């Protein structure tokens, strides 16, 4: 499968009065054409910072990409000027955020907002832009799109607004869509509809999707592959099947245990005790040591080995080391 995004050794930090926060500490990720990669983890793990780095949306200062590269096809995004990035943003790569209202202009009609980007980037006539906008509203499931084009955002429900935001993100036919917690603000039923919509859009357009979420229920519905982040690092990556049925990192297991399961009666949530480490001075060993039920002496002092378990699954944990396996067996 064609690789469309390649993130290598990405480091991002933020200067604050208290010191420098190392929010992302050497992230490697790939994305292929037509696939959905979910990035999961607790808040503050660096998942949004990673996503925002792709589109140079890190406020600088205080934020800075200090190391690494992000290639979108054959272009290195980290080396581009803001002007060059603006040509890509919304056209080749689009982003959707949690709160649809921040993406919509309350004073403009939905039609004007949808056609604005098209006219600006694709240089097409108003009539063609209108027709494409109506088609796009249709695709995202807005009834009576022709009439709805003339309305303002406040005349739509929360779920409908998020559909409009998705339509706006897709109207220039981007190859990559980055969605940061796109359903978090919506109620469960609407959430399910929006997730179905993502699946349908991907089938129809072949767009690649990066989905940032803390919600494993969402991930189970739409991700092809999953990257689990912890303390600024990807600690495990694999296909949906591998992560759900054969998770190898104790943190991934902990996350899965903390998800309520509908098929278990009287189920108990098992939250992971403790909190992630302070990223002002990240630990030199495994960042999960303090919370890990399997932690060994080596974990605290040396960052774990990176192990490839299959063509698709990789994990950073000392339990994969032969010596640890022997030690555990005795
Ligand atoms: Fe736990 Fe050690 Fe593996 Fe870290 S490296 S997850 S502390 S066993
Ligand atoms: Mg976030």
From TrEMBL:
Pfam families linked to this entry: ABC_tran, oligo_HPY
One Gene Ontology term of the molecular function aspect: ATP binding
Coiled coil: none
Main location: membrane
Topology in the lipid bilayer: Peripheral membrane protein
Zinc-finger among keywords: no
Annotated compartments: Cell membrane
All copies of domain ABC transporter, residue ranges: 5-256
Keyword list, A-Z: ATP-binding, Cell membrane, Membrane, Nucleotide-binding, Transport
Xref: InterPro entries: AAA+_ATPase (IPR003593), ABC_Ni/Peptide_Import (IPR050388), ABC_transporter-like_ATP-bd (IPR003439), ABC_transporter-like_CS (IPR017871), Oligopep_ABC_C (IPR013563), P-loop_NTPase (IPR027417)
NCBIfam families reported for this sequence: oligo_HPY
Family: Belongs to the ABC transporter superfamily.
PANTHER family: DIPEPTIDE TRANSPORT ATP-BINDING PROTEIN DPPD, OLIGOPEPTIDE TRANSPORT ATP-BINDING PROTEIN APPD
Name of this protein: ABC transporter ATP-binding protein
Organism: Pontibacillus chungwhensis
Lineage: Bacteria, Bacillati, Bacillota, Bacilli, Bacillales
